[in-house]
Structure formats: C-alpha cells, structure tokens
Amino acid sequence: MEASAVLATVSVATAVAVLWWIWRTLMWVWFKPKMIESYLRRQGLPGTSYTLLVGDVKRDYSMLKEAKSKPIKLTDDILPRVVPFPFHMLKTHGSTSFFTWRGAIPTITLMDPEHIKEVCNKVFEFQKPNTFPLAKLIATGIFIHDGDKWAKHRRIINPAFHVEKIKNKVPAFYQSCIEVVSKWDNIVSDKGLSGEVDVWPWLMSMTAEIISRTAFGSSYKEGQRIFDLQVELTQLIIDASKKNCIPGYRYYPTKGNRRIKAAAKESEVILRGIINKRLRAREAGEAPSEDLLGTLLESNLGQAKGDGMSIEDVMEECKFFYFAGQESTAVLLVWTMILLSQHQGWQARAREEVKQVFGDKEPDTEGLNQLKVMTMVIYEVLRLYPPVAYMYRAIYKEMKLGDLTLPAGVEINIPILLLQRDTHLWGEDAAEFKPDRFKDGISKATKGQVSFIPFSWGPRICVGQSFALMEAKMAMALILQRFSFELSPSYVHAPYKVFTIRPQFDFRERSINDGALIYRSKECHLSLSILRKKMEASAVLAPVSVAIAIAVLWWIWRTLEWVWFKPKMIESCLRRQGLPGTSYTPLVGDVKREVSMLMEARSKPLKLTDDIVPRVLPLPFHMLKTHGIKSFFTWRGPIPTITLMDPEHIKEVCNKIYEFQKPNTFPLAKLVSTGIFSHDGDKWAKHRRIINPAFHLEKIKNMVPAFHQSCIEVIGKWDNIVSDKGLSGEVDVWPWLMSLTADVISRTAFGSSYEEGHRIFTIQLELTQLLIHASRKSCFPGYRYYPTKVNRRIKAAARESEDTLRGIINKRLRARLAGEAPSQDLLGTLLEANLGQANGDGMSIEDVMEECKFFYFAGQESTSVLLVWTMIMLSQHQDWQARARQEINQVFGDKEPDTKGLNQLKVMTMILYEVLRLYPPVIYMARAIYKEMKLGDLTLPDGVQINLPIMLLQRDTNLWGEDAAEFKPDRFKDGVAKATKSQISYIPFSWGPRICLGQNFAMMEAKMAMALILQRFSFELSPSYVHAPYKVFTLHPQFGAHLILHKL
C-alpha cells in the first residue's frame, strides 16, 4: 500500500501541475495578450493585432532583413533601414504613440516628450525589462540594475566621472588617440599624401585602448584582451538571440553556446586576475589607483556594512564600462567622420576652430572645453546617429502615464532615433545635418522638450557622457590637426543596429561581395513569393507546434529534475560528507511524516514538568535523539534542510549575511508583512541603516510613557474584573497581553493615529489565521490563485490593511506639506527617509508601508509571547515571582516605573532572559544557499536550506548542562556571555549583523508590563490552565493562559 500511496500522490500532483502549466501557458500565449490588446485599444492607442506566440517578431525580422539587404544613398533617410517596422507604424498612425508585439509582450512606443519625461524621471516605477539571459555575459552592471542596487552603484561610481577626474584622464585619451593617428600617418605616407583607410576598426581599437587605460591603468594591456573577448561574445550572442524563441535554447550544448561560455569564463578569469593583483597591492600598503577599478575596489571595503560593492559587482561594472564606453564613443566618432566627409564646409569650420585654439600643440582640457563648433557638430551627430536606437522599460504593476493607464506586463519603448528625427519636434529639416541648430545650446534647440536623449535623460542619464564627449573631442581635434578626409568611392552607406548603430560594411567587404549580396537577396525574395501561398498557414503552425513540444519536454525534464534527480544527488552529496538524515520521498519529502507527528503531539497537552520540545518540534527532536547532538538533514518537500547544532557553524551563518540569505517563503505570507525581516543584500542594508535611529536608547526612553499608558489601561481592566469577584479572580491573560502589546505598537509606531493603527492589528491577526489555513494546501501548484472563500478574504483583508495604512501615511504627508514638524514615532522616521528616495537614499511609500506592517506584526507577537510565558513561569515558580516583586518594590515602591529604574531591574532581566531561552518567540530561523558554499568542514550544494534551531540549541544539555530544561534564571546572574561561555547558544533575537533591531524596545516594554503587574497582583496557575505550547508564527499557548490574579 505504501508504494501505491506514494505513486497516487505523485500522479495527482503531476496531473495538477500539468493542468496548471497548460493554463499558465494559455494565459501567457493568448488570454493575457488579448485582454491587454483590448484594454489598450479602449484607451485609443493604435497598434497591431496580436498573432499567437510570435506577435510582430516575424514581420519585424522580415522587414529588417529586407532593409539590410541593400545600402542607401547618403541623402536617404536612415529610419526605414535601421528601424523599418517602427517607422512603418509611425507613417501609418502619425506622430503618436502606438503598440506592437515582441512575442507575447505588448510594447508601447512613446512619441510624446511629456510621457518620455515622466518615464525617465520615475526610475523606481519604470524599471529595466528582463533581457535575453546570455546578453548578461557581456555586461550587466549599473545599466541593468534597478531600485536600491542601481542607486547604490550610481552613488559609488559617480565620483569616478567628476570633471576633475575626467581632466586627469585627458593624457590617457591623448596617448591612445595619437598612436592611432600616427599609424594612419604611416599608411597615408606610404601611398604619397593621400590614401584610403577603413577608419571603423581603427576607431574601435582606439576607444577600446582608452577604456583599458582609464579603467585599468597600468593593467591596460590585459584589459585589451577583455575587449577582444567582448567583441567575440557580442557576435556570438547576436547569433544565439536569433534562436531564443526555442525554450531553453541557451542550455543546449551547441558549438556557439560552448564558445560563449568559454569566452565569458576567460574574460572573468582575466578580470579577476587584475582585481586580485590590485587587492594584493592594497594589502601591501600601496595607495589606491585613481582609475575606475581603483574607485570600485575602494567601495568594496564598505561591503561588510552594506555600503560597498562585492567583488562580483566590481567585475560586472568593469565589464559594462568596457562594453558601453568603447561602443558608444566608437560609433560617435565613426559617424562624425562620415558626416564631416559628406559636409566639407563643417569639416573646414571645425578644423579652423581647432587650429585657432591649439595651433600645432597637444590638445588639453581647457582648450577642448572651448571647442564650440566641434560641440555643435558632435551634438548633431548624436541627434542623427545616436549610439542606442531606443531604450526599454518594463511595467510590473498597473501604472498611470499621463492620460493612459498601463497594465502590468506591458513594456515601454523610448525610440531615441525616431524622436530625434521627428519633424514635429525638430522641423522639416529634421533629417538634415545642421549643427548650428545647437549654437545656443541643447535647451534652445529642443525648446525645453525632452526630445534630445542620446545619453538617456533624468536620474538614469549616462554617468559617462562627459567622459565620452571629452574623448571624442580629443580624437577629432588630433585627426583634424593632421588630416582632411572625404568619403572613398568604395564607401557604402549602410547604418544598421547591433547593440549600437554601426556602419554595416567596410569597403573591403563591399568590394568583394557587393554583387553577390544583391543577387542572393533577390533570389531569396523570389523563392518566398512562389511558396508563400502554399506554406503560409503551416509556416505559422509548425514553429508553434515545435516550440510547444520542446517546452513540454523541457518542462517534464525540469519537473523530474526538481522532484527526483536533484534531491537524490544532493542527498548523496550530504551523506558522503558524513551528515545523517532521512531518505528522500518523491515530492513530499518528510512533510507527511512531520504533519502526522505534529498532529499526534498536539492532540494531548503536557504536564508542567514535561519537556516541550517533543510537542513543538517532534521530527527534529526525534532526529536529535536518533543521531545524537549533531547536525542532520530532513526534507521540506524536495528541498533538503540541514539543521545545524554546532555553535561555530551557526556563528558563521549568522555573520555571512550576503552568502546565507532568507529563503523564499509561502507567497501569501508576504501579505502579513515583509519589510526588513524578508529583505536581503543592499535593500536590507539600506533599510537597516534608515530604521536603526528609531531604536536608539534615547528614542526608546521617549517611548516609555506610551508603554506605561498602554500597560496601565490593561491592568486597570484586570483590577475591575478581579474586584467584581472579591480580591481574587481567574483571567485568561493571553488575549489581554496581545491587546496590550498591539496598543503599545500602535502608540509608538503611529503616535496620534494609534486608534487607526489598532485596526491594522485586528486585520493582521485575522490574516495570520487565514494564512495558516491556506499554507496547509500550499503543496497544490498555484493554490493561492484559486478563488476560494479563504483566498478571497485574504486578499480583501490585505487590501483593507493597506488602505488603512495608506490613509495614515497620506495624513502625515499632508501635515508635512502644511509645514508641521515630523513626528518622532517610527512612521515619522520612515517618512523622513522617504524624502531621500529620489537619489536612492530613502524608502518608497510602499517600503514604508511594509516596514510598518512588519514592525506591527513582529513587535506585537514577540513581546506578547514573552510576557505570557513569563507570567506562566512565574506562576509555576512562586519564589522567583516573590524575588522579582521584592526588587520592583525596592526600586519603585508604589511609584510609576521610569526608564532609569527599569534599567536597574537585575532579577527581572535574569527572568526575562531565562524565559527567552526556554520559550523563544521564534523557534528556528531558515537560511537559503543559492550557490555552492563552504561551512566549516562541510561543502553545501546550491538548493540546500539551513535551519538554525533556536529552541533546540537553547535547551541543548551539551551547551547548557543537565538542567537545560529547568527554569533557573540565576544562570544569567553574570550576564549572557558568562551563561553561554561565549558560545553562540543563546539567540532568541537572532545574532550577528541581522540581530533584531527591536530587542531593546521589547525588553523595556516587557519590564514595564511586568513591573506594573507585580506591583498590583500576585498570580498563580488556574486549575483550568492547560500546558500546551504550540507554534503558529511564534510560540503561543494553544488553549490560552488561565491564571488566578490576587490583588495586593
């Protein structure tokens, strides 16, 4: 029966997964695109009709292929050749925005400068889309990053491109340019006074050398090899991208894919070698270099506290600077030389200016800044031949853009080339070369509109634009000093787009292949005409069928790998290292066994003297008993989870926060709270830095009156309940303590808005219960999308919570605009941080909301469970209750507790520490591994999760002695370090850089509550009390906490 039960479970799960995959595929390839198309048309946007799966890709490719098959005249418009499909759409619909289809993705091309301005300004809303994955092997860096990571990298890189830094790079510009110009001199001298030169490869080599010198300084020769590899990679990836419609194509072991990986690896090895050489020099005490690599490596020093870049980030930024810097300046120079060859009058004016400023001397920074004609020429070249033809942005949630409402899933295309040649914006001569349109500067030329954006616009404007312009001026000044130039008869005008807009043919290619190229393209065109009628229907169906078949096979393989092959490989890897653990059961792992043990454990309460671990953590407790006090692994479905029992291993995991990150949780749980608890990397570091001041001791001291007010209200109600019954009475303190801590959080988080804040608490409580219910069905793929009653209520409650919170925030924002001083509560601190969002130093309003929700949930939960278990423990141990009361009476008498006195409560501190040891609010923490890691003598593969078992650790007899399960607060009489013998064995608030921000807040709140309770009541366990600790998110008393309170 056991085998058939497993088989049945796997079959049902597979069937559900297949149906879910079919539905998601249909949504992706048909329903969602058609819904978006209808939505866009209702708003008056013109566009093409959606074609299943391929969209406009086939049409776009066909038009591009035809356009590239033949060159154009120098006087022809380049738009029909470089961007034929968008140009056709523009001619069809006029100078208005329109939409097309990149496969199943709708792409809106914006032609309104105001819309473009808004998109460029809202960098946190309109983000970079996901690109073809292999393209990331060329470069990622600041160009690809979004949000906090982009803001941090931008802040670090900016100083490398300050005017003074660029001034120091001018000698490197000169050295690289003069070498190329001298070689041209030799070539021409060998032929007399004139000679034909294909300048394009020379200019690429020159700009590559400039980047090598300025990025790597003395290592520029090694840097040159990276350039060669980048050029090769670019061509290989362009070839591979033509097949990216085949699912998983980049994983196929083709010759091209193997070479891509080898070239990327070689590039990385060279770059890492250069970096390691610099790091060794820094360790030897050498001063840091002033080049880009030096700037980035200086930032690496701040990585530990989240302010710097990792070595991997440094490498990516160097690769991006190499690719973008070399490409953009090379194409700017080549089109400048081509246009000045065509327009000899402007060439003469530019040369005359260069001669006036420099004569025959070496160009310098001051002189280059005086070249007005050259600046006009370069601006006009950038307008007519911008390096990048367009920019893309993605929309991940519904957005307003002017009078348009754009749904999630749409991409935005900012068509730089179309925009800068638009006759409505630049006049009827928009396609003509007229540099004097820039004689009064860019603002006058554009009439203050966002219509000239060769280097982008807004906060994401190219950080290297001043660098590129200075480099171009140096190169052109040296060329114009030594040469006049004109177009060769063999020159073929054929601009085309790779990543940038390049000249397609050098003269050698054209002179050899000219006739054959035209003949072949005609022949191909003819063949297509004859076959089109017969093959048109099958031409659409065949690729779709093949793509679906490949996708299904790929999905089956990935499913098998996920549910069987990968888990079994990891299991084998862990066993070889001597780690004990359970055998993997397909799909379910140990979930069924754990649920069964948990249900059995929860079915009956405990005696007060029983160990709570078998009830709260039955499977880990069983593993510990079976294998002894050592680390072991179990299975959460197909995910292996290693439970660590070695304090040194736990210390390493807690310290290495960038390596051991938070795992992905049950998605619906994010509706309760995310915030700093869930974040990792740069976002976590930034939020931590912003929130820290809210929990400084002085701030907490100011919150003590709020603690007192909330506590005294609850105690007053207890007084009334007990008075109604005489001098003693039974009270279930658990709901009262939850209410008390919620009230404290409401007052300290929202100040005067605490009553509205209290409503959020009620919703959070409901959401918690609903999510626990939903999580039991999380093994069903896509369950959270099912329109069940529970799921609908979860979404409604989350929306109400968000609306309430947004109302409180908007009220504060209006008060700030009205000139009111910011509040000193947590919300005030976070909203002050929001002011710095524009430059990447602050939080968005969404971030503020998430941090408030998390503070609400975590702050209320952790302190309420600490208080309830403290009262239960002191009810059980009357001697410690008496000692705590005696201390409170000595410090305060009948007076109101204050901060100074609370800090003197040594016995109470010992009691709270011991309660946190025995009943930690969170009983374990999870961390995920996303790449192979070393941990002590273990090698942990990618895909493993780490479990830090706080409760098991804090009750371990090997660490705490044979009395580890007993309540003995005096073990903390000399502090935590002595009690733990300086081992990492006491972590109720976590440990290391991610230690809980609010621990001092929670401790002060708990001391205030216990001081007021002990001043007014003695208490003992009621006969109706049932000892049944159980885990929700935190460790709750399952049946409440019924105590008998006696008035003092």
Automatic annotation (TrEMBL):
CDD domains: CYP72. Gene3D superfamilies: Cytochrome P450. Its main location: membrane. GO terms for molecular function: metal ion binding; monooxygenase activity. Its cofactor is heme. It is found in: Membrane. Keywords: Heme, Iron, Membrane, Metal-binding, Monooxygenase, Oxidoreductase, Transmembrane, Transmembrane helix. Heme binds at C462. One of its GO terms (cellular component) is membrane. It is a single-pass membrane protein. The chain crosses the membrane at residues 6-31. It holds the Pfam family p450. Belongs to the cytochrome P450 family. This is Cytochrome P450. It comes from Eruca vesicaria subsp. sativa. The lineage of its organism: Eukaryota, Viridiplantae, Streptophyta, Embryophyta, Tracheophyta.
